[in-house]
Specification:
heterodimer, A: MetI-like fold, 23 helices, B: alpha/beta, Rossmann fold, 5-stranded parallel β-sheet, 6 helices, 21% strand, ABC_SmlMolc_Importer (chain B), nucleotide-binding (chain B), AAA+_ATPase (chain B), ATP binding (chain B)
């Protein structure tokens, strides 16, 4: 058990601390960097990060209630969860830009525009499009977490009790059910907040660029040819860490105030209010935006020529696909993803099996989620520098290790629930038949958990494919995956190539999810009792 | 070849003893029925003897199987078979593979193992069931497979936790006779916990768990 704990600390905990340590060392003694656009960048970071988190939370409440009663509709969450930020960002950019598909579909018959309008939509100086992009990715995550937490609550009973007291379903959800779920939402909310404050790939695709958000400014400094800019970059990373800590602190304070206010409101027993249910409208707009983003990526990847006001390309061709520039980054994405999920699954199995054999819980949860709560940009640059000191050059191995930090928490979380819910009688029965711990693991536990294992692998692959900074910084530009290529090509001239990379980036995790759903069904096609385990 | 409980009692985490120390010897072929009100620790007694007592439970006394103290031995080394209330089969394995999982590795060769499994199924009056999905079995069929599975592992003793309580009353007598017949034939000691008076009547011997003495 001590060995297992040490292994986890060395592989996961140490890199994070080392990365943060190097970042602090680089920032040490640095004065306040006098950079143009810093104040604006700071404001943008706060507005987009906190705004996206609050909006995601706000829409997740009615949508979770709406989906709770509609099991079949929950399938719509999976694509939003699986598709990487960069792919969605790229799709939204093609959809919403002044020359984007949305305007093309409405022009010129409705708008009268024969040229792209002089409007700023994507990259608007207020970060509205960036907030929208983050909202589309983070709200489904919060909805999923809400639904998972709700499964442990007698929701139907509380709903019946609340309605019998004269409250409408939405009111019962907000007043009685959601507050009980909130404790389970806190950590995911902090993860969303931390991510939104420090996001880089989506900010490059959808956010303003003159000046950009703090995280993008830091990336520009880190990747600048002038090594003297490393210090100011580390200083700004420290500032971002402070912003994040401050935001989480404020959030905790606001929780208390809001809880007190909400209790007063609850005591008044108000049952009125508007009857309009926002959930269907939100759901349909979200799905429409997602489908539009996917559709425009597909069209552009096949387009021969597509002049402005035309709703569809003049012709379709496979030229961009045949040019095969996508093969190398796609293979790299698959290779790195496979390596990362293999290591992450192995570590998760060691973790959970060690818990079973010792009968004690490994209390390292806080360490494991640390990579999700600190600004990626600062500690990943520190980590890359740390790897170099240890003799690990920038490249594939460094990228795999860096991605592991972000993939492992999700794989462990996805596996831990089903693992601990496994019927202990099955394991006891196997032991009473003379099966030792290894045989119990191979013949009973792992086959019974084949579904959750496949799901955890799919989630792990989706997280891996979505990594942008964890490839860019530890790979020092030598490792090119779909996510980095999609972002790099977005500012280039070839829309076909860019769309093709975005489409592939979206498709690979989706294929992974589909395979994870199909595998247990195929494996257990003759076992009625195993059907529900996926 | 006997199972000896030497002043055995146990206490839940942070709690007092559940029952007065139990002191009993079960001879080969003998079936001891342990009765007592629910909550007194009948299932925990099974867990203690089987070796899978949850963390935090305190056990006192000794459990001896064929003269060997079982303390500290993992469940898989104890050679104690189990027949649990729901008689659960491994849902991912076919009926035949459930039995093959239990069959001693000393039976070598694919044909020999298949024959041993088919023989066990015939004894359970379920010939040709090897390829079936466990989920398609009735409660009584599952119980019979579960017993055969326990016996194929060649246990030195067998523990039964209210094995008949989930069956319809008319079936109970039939299965009781089936199970007890096999136990006597194998000449191994068996302990059955139950609060069914019929179970108690068919067992060779009976003892009731009593609340602990106030001083204990």
């Amino acid at each position: 058990m001590v060995l297992v704990a040490a292994l986890m600390l060395v592989l996961i905990g140490l890199p994070v601390l080392a990365g943060l340590g190097v970042m602090l060392a680089q920032a040490w003694g640095q004065g306040w960097p006098d950079l143009p656009g810093l104040a604006v960048g700071l404001r943008l970071t706060l507005v987009t990060g906190v705004g996206a988190t609050l909006l995601s939370l706000a829409v997740s409440i009615p949508l979770a209630r709406w989906l709770w009663a509609r099991g079949a509709a929950r399938g719509w969450l999976a694509p939003f969860l699986a598709v990487p930020h960069a792919a969605l960002g790229l799709g939204l950019a093609f959809l919403l830009a002044p020359s984007g598909w949305l305007v093309r579909l409405l022009s010129p018959w409705a708008t009268g525009w024969n040229l792209p309008p002089q409007l700023v939509t994507v990259g608007d100086p207020w970060g509205v499009t960036l907030i929208l992009g983050l909202l589309l990715k983070e709200a489904p995550f919060l909805i999923l977490v809400t639904l998972v937490a709700a499964a442990n609550l007698p929701v139907a009973r509380i709903m019946a009790e609340g309605r019998s007291l004269g409250y409408r379903p939405g009111q019962v959800w907000l007043r009685l059910i959601w507050p009980q779920l909130y404790p389970s939402l806190r950590l995911p909310l902090f993860i969303v907040l931390a991510f939104s404050l420090s996001v880089v790939d989506m900010a490059l695709l959808l956010g303003p660029s003159h000046p950009p958000t703090l995280a993008v400014q830091i990336l520009r400094l880190f990747t600048a040819p002038d090594p003297a800019l490393q210090g100011p970059a580390a200083m700004l990373s420290l500032l971002l860490l402070g912003v994040m800590a401050g935001a989480i602190g404020l959030w905790i304070g606001a929780e208390r105030v809001l809880a007190a206010l909400a209790r007063r409101w609850l005591r008044r027993g108000v049952r009125g209010g508007w009857r309009l249910d926002a959930a269907p409208v939100l759901a349909v707009s979200g799905v429409a935006l997602g489908a539009g983003a996917a559709g425009v990526l597909l069209l552009w990847s096949l387009a021969t020529r597509w002049h402005f006001p035309a709703a569809l390309p003049e012709g379709l061709s496979m030229a961009a696909w045949r040019a095969a520039r996508w093969v190398a980054p796609a293979a790299e994405t698959l290779l790195i993803g496979a390596a990362v999920i293999l290591v992450a699954l192995l570590l998760a199995l060691i973790w959970l099996e060690a818990e079973d054999r010792s009968g004690r819980r490994l209390r390292l949860g806080a360490f494991i989620v640390l990579p999700l709560l600190v600004p990626q940009i600062g500690f990943l640059q520190g980590l890359a520098a740390g790897f170099l000191h240890l003799g690990l050059p920038p490249g594939r191995i460094a990228v795999i290790w860096a991605e592991l930090l972000f993939v492992f928490p999700y794989v462990l979380l996805a596996l831990a629930g089903p693992w601990r819910a496994l019927d202990p009688q099955q394991v006891i029965a196997a032991a009473s038949l003379g099966a030792g711990p290894w045989r119990r693991l191979w013949r009973i536990k792992l086959p019974l958990l084949a579904g959750p294992l496949a799901t955890a692998a799919a989630i792990g692959f989706a997280v891996s494919a979505a990594q942008f900074l964890a490839v860019l910084l530890p790979g020092a530009g030598r490792v090119q995956v779909l996510a980095t290529e999609a972002v790099a090509l977005a500012s280039g001239a070839d829309r076909r190539l860019s769309a093709l990379h975005g489409l592939l980036l979206a498709a690979l995790p989706l294929i992974g999810y589909a395979a994870a759903l199909w595998l247990p069904l195929w494996l257990w096609r003759d076992r009625a009792a195993m059907k529900g385990s996926a | 070849m006997s199972l000896i409980l030497d002043h055995v009692t146990l206490a839940p985490p942070g709690g007092a003893r559940l029952f007065a120390p139990l002191d009993v010897t079960i001879a080969p072929g003998e079936v001891l029925c342990v009765t007592g009100p629910s909550g007194i620790g009948k299932s925990s007694l099974i867990a203690l003897i089987g070796g899978f007592l949850p963390c935090g439970f305190r056990a006192e006394g000794r459990v001896l199987l064929n003269g060997v103290d079982l303390a500290g031995q993992p469940p898989e080394a104890r050679r104690i078979g189990l027949l649990l209330q729901e008689a659960p089969l491994f849902p991912h394995l076919s009926v035949g593979d459930n039995l093959a999982f239990a069959l001693s590795p000393r039976v070598k060769g694919r044909a020999a193992r298949r024959a041993a499994i088919e023989e066990a199924l015939e004894q359970a009056a379920l010939p040709g069931f090897a390829g079936r999905d466990p989920a398609t079995l009735s409660g009584g069929q599952r119980l019979r497979v579960s017993l055969m599975r326990a016996l194929l592992a060649e246990p030195a003793a067998l523990l039964l936790d209210e094995p008949f309580s989930r069956l319809d009353p008319p079936l109970r007598a039939e299965f009781r006779a089936f199970v007890l017949g096999h136990l006597v034939a194998r000449a191994i000691p068996a302990l059955i916990v139950s609060h069914d008076a019929e179970d108690a009547a068919t067992a060779t011997r009976c003892c009731a768990l009593a609340p602990p003495a106030p001083s204990g």
